[in-house]
Amino acid sequence: xxxxxxxxxxxxxxxxxxxxxxxxxxxxxxxxxxxxxxxxxxxxxxxxxxxxxxxxxxxxxxxxxxxxxxxxxxxxxxxxxxxxxxxxxxxxxxxxxxxxxxxxxxxxxxxxxxxxxxxxxxxxxxxxxxxxxxxxxxxxxxxxxxxxxxxxxxxxxxxxxxxxxxxxxxxxxxxxxxxxxxxxxxxxxxxxxxxxxxxxxxxxxxxxxxxxxxxxxxxxxxxxxxxxxxxxxxxxxxxxxxxxxxxxxxxxxxxxxxxxxxxxxxxxxxxxxxxxxxxxxxxxxxxxxxxxxxxxxxxxxxxxxxxxxxxxxxxxxxxxxxxxxxxxxxxxxxxxxxxxxxxxxxxxxxxxxxxxxxxxxxxxxxxxxxxxxxxxxxxxxxxxxxxxxxxxxxxxxxxxxxxxxxxxxxxxxxxxxxxxxxxxxxxxxxxxxxxxxxxxxxxx
Length: 444
What we know:
- By secondary structure, the protein is an alpha/beta fold.
- It has three domains: 28-137, Immunoglobulin-like (Sandwich), CATH 2.60.40; 157-379, Zn-dependent exopeptidases (Aminopeptidase, 3-Layer(aba) Sandwich), CATH 3.40.630.40; 394-441, Membrane-bound Lytic Murein Transglycosylase D, Chain A (Roll), CATH 3.10.350.
- 34% of the residues lie in helices and 25% in strands.
- The protein has helices at 2-28, 180-196, 215-224, 259-269, 271-275, 283-290, 293-313, 350-356, 359-379, 386-392, 408-415, 419-425, and strands at 31-40, 44-51, 57-62, 67-72, 75-77, 91-99, 103-110, 114-121, 130-137, 157-163, 173-174, 178-179, 201-205, 229-234, 247-251, 325-327, 339-343, 398-401, 438-441.
- The strands form five sheets. The chain has a six-stranded mixed beta sheet, with helices on both faces. Strands 5-1-2-9-8 form a five-stranded mixed beta sheet, with no helix packed on it. The chain has a four-stranded antiparallel beta sheet with strand order 3-4-7-6, with no helix packed on it.
- A hairpin with a 4-residue loop joins β3 (57-62) and β4.
- The longest helix has 27 residues, at 2-28.
- Residues 20-28, 141-146, 259-263 and 273-293 have low confidence and may be disordered.
């Protein structure tokens, strides 16, 4: 009897010890680094560590040789750091090791001077917990932006083109792993090409590649470029796959002008949570800015140009709304730069996703946005611009360079002249034109 009690006590003790050992082993590595990703932007490099759970960490900068040391408490490494593409980044090599038995040390060997900034991101619907390390390049002397087209002080109209999302923020997803960030960048590049081909315009790309730009940073870049207009391009999704149609948005001072506008604005504003910047501390400041008179002027201009853009989009796409919707999109909250957000369609709708995936439709959409912008500024150009001077002097000869997708009828409509007058002015026997060809637009 006594022997049985002793054996049971020993068994219970062994079980408790195994349980404590198991708990201790789990606590030994409270989190796992599951993956390491790297994104290169023009002014910084972002390193993202995907985690199985939240962690505590510390970042140390060391010299001779230059390196960034990240110590992560109670963590282990599961990711393959050797497979990370370090090309065109200041990171020469990634090394890892164990520190104080339980902690993970990640060392970034650096080949140029950078300034690190780190922060943690909580898990959301798209990603788990993440540790983000931004390596900012040593600041270079920025070229001053001067909006001149020639020595007669007739400046270009500056258009900031903002392709939504990017980098670790793919945006909405469609069938066959179609990503919003890729679709809108392709449309943005095509719009950039069209504006570059048109005298009197200077396009500025907010994002030129697959990297993330914070929503506030996008506004700052547009203001730094002294933009006359900012166009933010998106292709959103909705839980109901039947939702369809392109649309244009301007900022709303109060509530959204439709239920859909509020849903899309909430989703778009969450992009900064993916990028690691909270928007909560900026609303009060921006609410004050919205009351400023300059904001009223910007909103009026946004609605006007938005109306022209949505009208031209309606010629090539189904519209979700024939008027400019208004919603509280963070990217539109610039106090002195007229801004519109273009939804090129619903990437969650199989039919629209199929179109958005094609180069032909991307060019058509870019052309529609361009035509809307061109129509607006040909009628209401800023007073110190080449287009304003051209409007005041209609008799002046206008030289136009044929761009991709141009037709003589489209050019004639844009400049409010007839096709016959263009043919006669340029001694053309047919309407056949080629990219790069220069033609003279006759005066009206």
